[in-house]
Amino acid sequence: MSRLIVISNRVSAPKGEAGAQGGLAVAFAAALREHKGLWFGWSGEPTDRFTGEIDYQDVRGVCTATIDLEDQDIEEYYNGYANRTLWPLFHFRVDLAEFERDFAQGYQRVNERFADTVRPLIEDDDLVWVQDYHLIPLGEELRKRELRNRLGFFLHIPWPPRHLLASLPHARELVSTMFAYDVIGFHTTEWLEAFLDYALGEMGADLLDDGTIRLGDRTVRAISCPIGIDTAEFVAAASSPQARLAYRRMKDSSDGRDLIVGVDRLDYSKGLEERFAGYERFLEEHEESRKEVYLLQIAPPSRGDVETYQRIRATLDGLSGRINGAHADLDWVPIRYVNRGFPRAVLAGVYRAARIGLVTPLRDGMNLVAKEYVAAQDPEDPGVLILSRFAGAALQMTDAVLVNPHSAEELSDAIELALKMPRDERVARWRALMDGVERQDVIWWRKRFTDALARSDQSWEDAPAAAAE
To answer: Which residue among 73, 264, 364, 399 is the active-site one?
Structure first.
């Protein structure tokens, strides 16, 4: 059986505490144990001088290999091109994207360093799976280093429409590197179709009868493959002592009021300003019931070195303070705004205690919080998921209350609908949602992609010289 080599920007080794790691780490850990594979990436740590020295660890049967990056690499590759150029552009925020030559050069340099360092670790029969927007050109760099293995790439964020991607300097060159892969995966058919539109319309690629895409002498298969959560593990986490304690704490502190919960990384793509505006509209329009609810917004900071993220934190601090100042009473505040993260088991208990799960990104590749909220519910008395139409999850989770997060009125109406929804309807919606969460979980996602990669008939054994130079 072939080994699986996973390559990602960061490596998240398994942790000892149950439920402490994310769903992606769970999926990779299971696959790497099964295939005796390796997980390679950046350690998250800086170094004065890049050496390519690899730190190997074996944690609970998962072998990881990490490297440190120089401060300049981190600033230009990670803070720069990945998170100040590609991230906003791919989330349809070209107004926030920064196009700096140094960023692009740093991005290319780090991808070359990844390729130089990981190439000697890859054996002839290994399946190689590259993850996300940080490493788009890595496949091309590995081919230049005479890698002939089956090579896959998965994008965890949206793919932008053709007219937006055209605003990226050298977009054609970046997209052309993706044809070094054998299989490319997207969460939704929408992102897949946008990729096809660009490849065919802007680059002159051909869609072949077997569904593959040919550009010059290279052929790639693109698939939609929506990621899920480790459903069984999360259901178990929701019944753990840690979750039960969190549930009781929330119920006790709610003092009989209904909890509305939002859990999001502090990011402009998550629609937090719009969410606060919609919740404020609900408070204004429903004076008779507003003191019967409160919003708990958990928003751990991220990418604090990037000015855009500093601005959104300041904005949300101001918004939450203004709303509480305008609407709070002696014994009630409408928003509890928390800037820290919590273990997944604790979040599972919070989700279970919440009458409403508010997941309203302006644009999201998938959004697993929506699926975790559903998995944590009490089957006999579940809460209601309010979900943005612009999250990738909305294409699967059609029994949620779907909303346009840009409309404060629509968010207000959805909150009112969810609070008044009868138990029978809540159970019926939850059951339909849960069936999907159980059926297409993170293990299904991983197997769907790796099976497609293993079946790929693209062969680089006799690849033309141009494909490897």
So the answer is: 364
